[in-house]
What does this fold into?
Amino acid sequence: MTAIPAGRATADGRIGWLEQTVGGITGNIEHAIFTERHARSDGWLQRRDPRAKLVGFLIAIVAASLVSSVVGLALLYGATLAAARASRVPFGFFVKRVWLGIPFFAGIVVVPAIFFVPGERVFDLALGPAHLAPSWNGLAGAAIFVGRVGVSVSLAVLMVVTTPWADVLKSLRALRTPQVFVLVLSMTYRYIFLFLHTANGILLARKSRMVGRTSGREQRRWITGTMGNLMSRAFKMSNDVYAAMLARGFTGEVRVYSTYRMRVADWTALGVTSAFCGVAILASRIVT
Amino acid sequence: MHIPDGYLAPAVSLALAAPTLPVWGLAAQRVKKVLNNRTVPLLAIFSALSFTIMMFNVPVPGGTTAHGVGGTLIAVVLGPWAAVIAVSTALILQALFFGDGGILAIFANCLNMGIILPFVGYGTYRILAAGAPTLSTRRAVAAGIGAYIGITVAALAVGIELGIEPVLFSSNGHALYSPYGLSEAVPAMLAAHAFGASIVEGLITGLGVAYLQRRHPEYLTSLRGIFAPDVEAEGRPSQRPLWQFGLATAAAGVAVMGAIGLIEGGGNPGRMFNADWSKVDWPSVASMLLVAGLAGLVLVPTAYLILPRAVKRVGAGFVALAVVAPIGLIAPGFAYGEGHAQDVKLAFGYVPTGLQDLSGIFAAPMSGYNLPLPFFSEANAPLWHAGIGYEVAGILGILAVGSVAYLVARLLRGADGAKPPISAESGT
It folds into this structure.
């Protein structure tokens, strides 16, 4: 795999959008490998039955969007951190990945609302005709909003990081998701990486032939040509894949052999999770 | 456009499953019925393609980048039902695997980008491309416009979903979920897309279809026959010249303006845009238009010839704008936001005191965009005199602004050493 430094600045200090794209693609591939590594280590969440894990995380995410106070969110986040620690997910990686990235955008989105929400003001700074006056109500709303997004994202990240992709798919099947969807999902997952590699190769080939800069118009023309090219490769590939599936006796039926067994520990974990989420929701209703 | 968890209340997230789940079921049925076991690898590979397209950041005029979805492109090639499955699968993978879009919000995201987008885009495409041969330019343009409208409508749906949150769910005066109401969320989403991401999606789709027409026309015919057998896609390759599209766009613009004018005038053609057109002196308007037309015939080619190479086209365009500027003189009334204090008083019956104080301070040398000579601005001078005054004032103004911009650019470049100008990459 070609490792290209993400978002490298060009000579005049700008970061070219092509490099940005290459960096994004490569970063995602690397991230994917990283993820499977945590899924294979021996921890508390990795030992649970995938079905119990899926249901438990769904309950927790619903609970995170139902609690309406900082107390409830803090309880849920504490439990998430404890689960991550018990599952040997590196603390720094887990906290940084969530709080540096995704809620940052939520935070920017919510800033104007702090000033517009009516209510008692924290302070009132007069700047000419304009007043800089955040309200307590606005601050509370913003804190809950950012906290909720952060906890939801943490839960989703923890689930994906501790579960091999094949297990996620099998448990989706066990939860009666239509077979076509599971099959398409599992094949898509594989081809995404193939396509990302192909796209990465095309970008690298272009970069290695380029001298100087090109116009935006030229870049757009190139990108659409590349997409059309990828599409035609997709057609050819789907024919080959279908032929290969036929040759191996594919009749339209998919048999997934499941070796999963819900043990006492799994039922206990599911029960404890549900009970804890109930407590968090209740606590957020009482302590406001 | 991916909504993360926490923006939507769980009740809204789950309520959006009500329209999404049946469409998924129907799509699976439709696609399965039409195609045999080949469905699976084809759909999987197209989902992967949509996923990859969502990762390409494309530069947008204005300095930012945006990503497309590819929903309309897939709908044009495979039909809308297959596009529903392909885009939804890509979205579910993004949510589960890359944290792009929330897990509870999957139904919302799939409804917006996986269902509304391909169906609106494909519907628009079918209407605009009706009867066109497979390889005609009209099909590619129709696909581009369909994609633009499809993703813009999807953005509108996102705006509405976010905008109803504070109305439905608030406690103690503060919003529990997304804090912006409909009046903020809808315009923000629409503006961000209509002038950015939607343009990208339209370009990707239009140019993508054009590429397929040129290089792989069989994908536009044979596959359509499999996925949407009721659609006839036969015909000779033909090219429609660009000027016909320009003419059609202009006609559509005039029609829209006419409709708006009629609505504002209460349906009376004599009061278009709510103005009294019977007050207009049409013979003097005709003479002014004649003079303006002659001036344009001389000035625009002259500007194109004498201007330096780099600004030839832009400069000639600006001169053409200055030439047509006096058309505004015909309209009885005044342009919004440009009125003089007296005009404002006539229209509203009073003058805001702040405006009255300010207007005396600075009397512009060419006030009213006209020249301060009796020939041009006398009260009873013929209209074409004022028209010429407008044009000369306009060209002088363009020259003044252009010189200031040129000087500033020179100064900046001088201070920056021998570096190339910042706009080296603006190819559009």
Q: What stands out?
A: Residues 242-279 of chain B form one domain. The CA atoms of residues 125 and 146 of chain B lie 5 Å apart. Chain B touches chain A through 79 residues (CB under 8 Å).
